[in-house]
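re: that chain from earlier
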Amino acid sequence: MSDLRELYQEVILDHNKRPRNFRAIAPPSQKAEGFNPLCGDRITVYVRMNGDLIEDVSFEGSGCAISKASGSLMTAALKGRTVTEADSLFQEFHTMVTSPADVPIETGRLDKLIVFSGVREYPVRVKCASLAWHTLRAALEARQDVVSTE
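^ sequence. v structure.
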């Protein structure tokens, strides 16, 4: 196994064991729930807005290491960003995890989120990695339906 892949696994395991921003925001401006029926991941994303700025973002839930780590890294990456910046980062992240494994990755502003580049080799894990992101979008759009990866 390459040193880079081992580093990525360590980052994911660390964020799974000690997730950042793993709490409810009381009261949130918006929140949404997400569910991955394939593996049972459940997540609630909380957002506190200040105009167009994501002042605070957090999550709670249960799921696999990839799902929990994705929520942790996502919240850390989005605090203090605008909704437009969050949407752009979502697009970059989604493109990265859904592109074929042999396609080079444009890292752009992904920073630590690049650790999820390996999930594209395991298509079933793409849903685990993207659940928090889809749930965030639902929260930002004030949608009331439960987000499903199916």
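The chain is about 40% helix and 20% strand.
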